[in-house]
Design a protein that fits this description.
With 200 residues, this protein is α+β, with helices and mostly antiparallel strands. It is built from 5 helices and 10 strands; from the N terminus they run H-E-E-E-E-H-E-H-H-E-E-E-E-E-H. The chain folds into 2 domains: 3-114, no CATH class; 130-184, Double Stranded RNA Binding Domain.
């Protein structure tokens, strides 16, 4: 194993106990354990007790990304790109996105880019250089105690979370995804003006 792949293992090994978010979805995955032999034990909504993601799969995905410069979770025909990220592609891509030498280019389709070591982190790809948007977020609390957030300016942009910090992080992911879809949408876009209180 070369030095860069060893660095990848060391960097990911520090994620034990950390919660990461599935790219493009925002679902929470917790790194329950890390084993030098097995890999990373990742707990998901469907498998809260965790399933092992082997080092072999993770390093294979990273090596593919390193060789090609960028990679997606879908092939040109729309099928799952198992050659790049194997059968646990969504989780593997989300793990790789935590690395200092990997960037998220787009969230849907999921697309990662490789940043060689030593390259200044401010040098990002053109796809990430769009102007910053300031969005109004409406946050409410439902009867079950969950926080519900929405962005009126973005059609269908809403999410929830158990805490304020969680819902803000989730709505940030949801808004990023909606903005990517918006760029491809040729329909007339709505401009958010404000919130008004109406007395009846």
């Amino acid at each position: 194993m070369d030095k860069e792949l060893e660095r990848v293992k060391q960097e990911l090994s520090k994620l034990k106990g950390v919660t990461i978010h599935t790219i493009g979805i925002g679902a929470e995955d917790e790194i329950l354990d890390v084993s030098e032999k097995e890999g990373l034990l990742v707990g998901t909504h469907r498998s809260p007790d965790g399933q092992w993601v082997k080092w072999e799969w993770v390093l294979q995905g990273y090596d593919h990304l390193r060789k090609h410069g960028e990679a997606t979770n879908k092939t040109a025909s729309g099928e799952v790109n198992r050659e790049a990220f194997g059968y646990r592609g969504a989780i593997i891509m989300s793990l790789l996105a935590e690395l200092s030498t990997v960037e998220i280019i787009t969230r849907r389709p999921k697309k990662l880019g490789y940043l060689p070591e030593g390259l200044p982190t401010q040098l990002r790809r053109e796809t990430q250089s769009r102007p910053r948007r300031h969005l109004m977020v409406v946050i409410e609390k439902d009867e079950d105690g969950y926080y519900v957030a929405s962005v009126p300016e973005l059609r269908g942009c809403h999410t929830q979370g158990k805490t304020l910090d969680e819902v803000i992080e989730n709505i940030r992911d949801a808004a990023s995804l909606c903005l990517e879809v918006e760029q491809e949408d040729e329909e007339v876009k709505m401009e958010f003006i404000g919130v008004h209180t109406l007395e009846i």
